[in-house]
Design a protein that fits this description.
The chain is mainly α and 562 residues long. Among the domains are: 2-51, no CATH class; 66-155; 162-284, no CATH class; 475-562, Tetratricopeptide repeat domain (Serine Threonine Protein Phosphatase 5, Tetratricopeptide repeat), CATH 1.25.40. Helix content is 64%, strand content 3%. The protein is built from 26 helices and four strands. The protein has helices at 2-6, 47-51, 66-77, 85-93, 98-111, 115-125, 149-157, 162-170, 181-195, 203-216, 229-241, 258-267, 271-284, 289-302, 311-323, 327-345, 350-365, 369-387, 392-407, 411-429, 434-449, 453-471, 476-491, 495-513, 518-534, 538-556, and strands at 12-16, 36-40, 246-248, 253-255. Strands 1-2 form a two-stranded parallel ribbon. The protein has a two-stranded antiparallel sheet with strand order 3-4. Helix 15 (311-323) runs antiparallel to helix 16. The N and C termini lie far apart (73 Å). Residues 132-148 have low confidence and may be disordered. This is TPR-like protein. InterPro entries: NLR-like, P-loop_NTPase, TPR-like_helical_dom_sf. Pfam families: TPR_10, TPR_12.
Length: 562
């Protein structure tokens, strides 16, 4: 056949479809003639280097856009082209993957279902529905393509090396996007810390932990003990080369198709290992706001009632979710951690008290101030008894109690507690220590609420200057202090300077937290009030209020009391 093609005296077109086997050299199948125009379709990234023939010879096909995906679904299913909202939802849940959409459309047609009915079936069966048997879809319904969705991916998966395949399977229990090298490196760093728990692991948990630890050791340089970035990236690039992962160079993160994740979960149950992976990474990046925010979407994926020995993982998850503004999702994790530590360690153990403190903070964020104050009083009493009234942990409990009392409007008791805490911190650490500066900041807010606005402004300015000296301007603590100083200036009628500061805070929070985060919306509300109420520029402030309202509706629903 090749000899015949090579002897043709006119131009012709040769189409090589689904060239997805990396072990096959297609050059052996090319006719030896300049009259041939050859089109190769492949999922292999390396094909670009192997068969490139000049500028413009390679076309990268991305996912379908929403309109294309919906049209393809309707045509494949034989449905009216006008469509309905359930058709839109179906294409979104198939993540605009063309083969998956064609297979779903053929399944809808063969089983006589509506898109909504198919979608409900898909949600319950998922991988089983798209195996070409349960959905009764034959290759001719897929445009002649011989493999269904999952068979196609499995053929690529089977070509991966053992380590690359193991790394890929770990991605099954993460969010489908934003998978970063930092997540795995962070986990390795904190593995020793999490292994030393007060409550021992169950055999299943210990096996999952040891499996993760052994896996991560593959990315440690022999001799130096350093993280082997080259080996990690080589493994991820191997997976990418088979089009099982995509790399987002702008954000330095990988993404995997959610349908592929569903199939991977059938190969190996890595949920507990993924729990440890995220928890340990959370401890490593505890004080790095940007890293913690990236972890939040992954933590949400593995959320479940944690095992009896995973209270330490719960501590990490609660922190990640709270920094991400996901307080309602953090609450059941915190409740479970408190129940576990109470049952295993008793009411007065430090781990139990720490779990109680986490829950009290969450209740405060959720607006349940009465419950939060009651828990904080109990904690303060317990720490005072077990550690003494001047212990740093006791003073931290006193600060938490004062903040909850302030939320209830009990300003005088708040001030009394905060002055005592500040006095102890100044005596122990001096005026430039972080604990002393934090205490001064808390007291400054209370002084302002009690009516001494000028003294409050002076205190807030000292706090801001000290934080800026410690951390620089673009740090969470510095920005919080700047926002508080801006509010103090507004209360003194210095509106232009206050507005200027608030704009800096809003812009920073948008970049770090995102536009819909509670802290960003709170800062934007403050700016809107400055522009509209304080400066009288109502038309300029109105869009800001509207943005806050719309994003709050998106997060909480239109019927929420907020």
């Amino acid at each position: 056949a090749l000899a015949w093609l090579s002897q043709l005296d006119h131009a012709f077109f040769l189409y090589i479809d689904n060239a997805d086997d990396p072990d096959v050299d297609l050059n052996a199948y090319f006719p030896q003639t300049t009259r041939a125009s050859i089109l190769i379709t492949t999922r292999l990234r390396e094909a670009e280097q192997n068969y490139w023939s000049g500028s413009g010879s390679v076309i990268h096909l991305g996912p379908l856009d929403e309109t294309e995906a919906k049209d393809l679904l309707l045509r494949s299913a034989g449905l009216p082209l006008s469509g309905t909202q359930e058709n839109d939802i179906a294409t979104l849940e198939l993540h605009s993957h063309s083969l998956a959409i064609v297979q779903a459309g053929a399944g809808i047609f063969n089983m006589g279902l509506t898109a909504g009915a198919y979608l409900n079936l898909f949600r319950s069966m998922r991988t089983k529905l798209m195996n070409g048997v349960n959905d009764r879809v034959k290759s001719k319904a897929l445009g002649g393509y011989l493999q269904n969705v999952y068979t196609t991916w499995m053929l690529s998966y089977q070509h991966l090396s053992s380590l690359a395949a193991q790394l890929f399977r770990m991605c099954a229990y993460l969010h489908h996007s934003g998978i970063r090298e930092d997540l795995f490196f962070g986990s390795l760093v904190s593995m020793p810390r999490v292994r030393e728990l007060t409550i021992p692991y169950t055999p299943a948990e210990a096996a999952a932990f040891d499996s993760l630890n052994l896996f991560l050791q593959n990315f440690v340089e022999v001799g130096t003990g350093f993280w082997d970035q080259h080996r990690f990236r080589t493994c991820m690039q191997e997976v990418c080369s088979h089009s099982l992962l995509d790399f987002d160079s702008e954000n330095e993160a990988y993404r995997v198709h959610p349908l592929v994740q569903s199939r991977l979960k059938e190969l190996e149950d890595n949920r507990t290992s993924a729990t440890f992976l995220l928890a340990t990474s959370g401890f490593t990046w505890w004080n790095d706001t940007a890293q913690i925010l990236r972890l939040a979407s992954h933590v949400e994926v593995v959320l479940q009632p944690l095992g009896s020995s995973e209270a330490d993982a719960a501590e990490s998850f609660v922190h990640v979710l709270c920094v991400g503004g996901r307080y309602a999702k953090a609450e059941p994790i915190a409740v479970n951690a408190l129940n576990v530590t109470t049952a295993k360690l008793g009411n007065t153990h430090t781990d139990t008290l720490a779990a109680s403190s986490n829950l009290a903070s969450i209740l405060g964020y959720l607006g349940r101030q009465g419950d939060a104050v009651a828990m904080c009083r109990s904690l303060f009493g317990a720490y005072s008894t077990t550690l003494g009234p001047r212990h740093p942990t006791t003073l931290a409990a006193a600060t938490n109690l004062s903040c909850r009392l302030s939320d209830l409007g009990n300003r005088r008791e708040t001030e009394q507690i905060q002055r005592e805490v500040l006095k102890q911190h100044l005596t122990t650490f001096g005026p430039d220590h972080l604990q002393s500066v934090q205490s001064l900041g808390h007291l400054a807010l209370t002084v302002g609420l009690l009516g001494d606005r000028r003294q409050s402004e002076q205190m807030q300015r000292r706090v801001f200057e000290k934080y800026q000296a410690m951390f620089g301007l673009e740090h969470r603590q510095t920005m919080l202090a700047l926002a508080n100083l801006a509010s103090s200036l507004a209360s003194l009628g210095r509106h232009p300077k206050s507005e200027q500061m608030k704009r800096v805070v809003v812009e920073w929070k948008r970049q770090i937290y995102g536009v819909g985060h509670p802290e960003t919306l709170e800062a934007l509300t403050g700016l809107a009030l400055s522009v509209s109420r304080d400066s009288g520029r109502h038309e300029e402030g109105r869009p800001m209020f509207e943005e806050v309202l719309e994003r709050t509706k998106e997060a909480l629903g239109s019927q929420h009391k907020t």
